Amino acid sequence: MQLLSGLPDEVGEGVEQSWGRGCQWYRKAAEMGLARAQCNLAWCYEHGKGVELQLEEAFCWYQKAAEQDDARGLFSVARAYDYGRGVAQDWKEAVYWYQKAVDAGSAYAMCDLGVCYERGEGVQQDYAKAAELYRQAAEAGNPPGQCNLGYLYEVGQGVEQNWEEAVRWYGAAARQEAWPGPNATWPGAMNMARA
Known about the structure:
Blueprint: H1 2-11, H2 19-31, H3 35-47, H4 55-66, H5 71-83, H6 91-103, H7 107-119, H8 127-139, H9 143-155, H10 163-175
């Protein structure tokens, strides 16, 4: 119930919007072990919404959710290692957590793990594996995965060059009306854009 109580305060649904009050409710639910609330509270710490920006504290809460095999928690731990946010950057550790998030069904992790294989970050560079992961993300409706798969078709890396497929996947990404970008400002809209 505390998790549900935080959302109206966060978005101003029926009450005056208050990140601080929303974070208080998320904390209560997070302390009860609810993975979704742990991720929401972590996001608040990661972005300084309703609490002081504290990347280490954000990482701790994401880690608690990841320990419950929560896909969002797993993905967020992977990204923290990938970018060194709240923890020392470690691409091998990022790959480990991305794979766990992929296994939990995260399309975002499929895309970002594909990036690791495409660039050879934390793993041996493997364009075919990158294409396979991008395809999984793309077929799950992930716009960055669609775009990245389109690029591999455009340049013929990991797949046979195919302009029609490139246009198909670029178009699929472009047709998605609303997907969070790098400046998303709510916990449910994780930062999907990949630098």
